[in-house]
Amino acid sequence: MENRPNPLNQTPLKLLAIHLDPQILADLPNGAIDPSVFRCVNANEAQFCLLLKTSRLWVQFADGEFCDYPYYLKNIFRLLESFRTYSLTNTSPSETFHSFIKTTEAIEKKIFSNVSMTPGENVKDLWDEIIKKVNAISAESHSLKGLVKKILEVPFLQNFQSSLIILHLKGQTKAELMGTIWRSEHIHGLIEVKDFNLAFNSIRKSKIKSFSTDAFIKLNLPFNGSFLAKEAISKKYSLIAIVSRHDFLSYGNEEIELFETCIDLLQPHFERLIDQEFSNKKISELRICLKDFPLPLRIRDGQSGSSFMNDLYRNELQDQDIFYNKKIKGPFSLDLYDSDELRHYAFDLFHFQRISLLGELLNTLRHELSNPLFGLKLSSQIFTTLEVANDDKEIMIEIEKNVDRCQAIIENFSNMYQIQSDIKPVLLKKMIEESLVLAKSEIREVTKKISYAPGTEDLHLNVPLIFVVQVLFNLVVNAAQAMRSQTQRAELAINISLMDSNVLIDISDNGPGIPDDKLINLFKPFFTTKSQGTGLGLVLSRNLTLKMGGNIEYQVNENKKGACFRVILPLT
Amino acid sequence: MKHILIIEDEILIQQSLKKLFERKGIKVAVSSSGKIAIDMILAHDFDRIICDLMLQDISGFDVIEESKKRYSPKEIGQKFVIMTAYNSPQVLSRANSYQCKLLNKPFDNLDEALRIMTE
Question: In sequence order, which residues have a C-beta less than 8 Å from that of residue A442 and are 6 or more positions away?
Answer without folding.
Answer: A476, A477, A480, A481
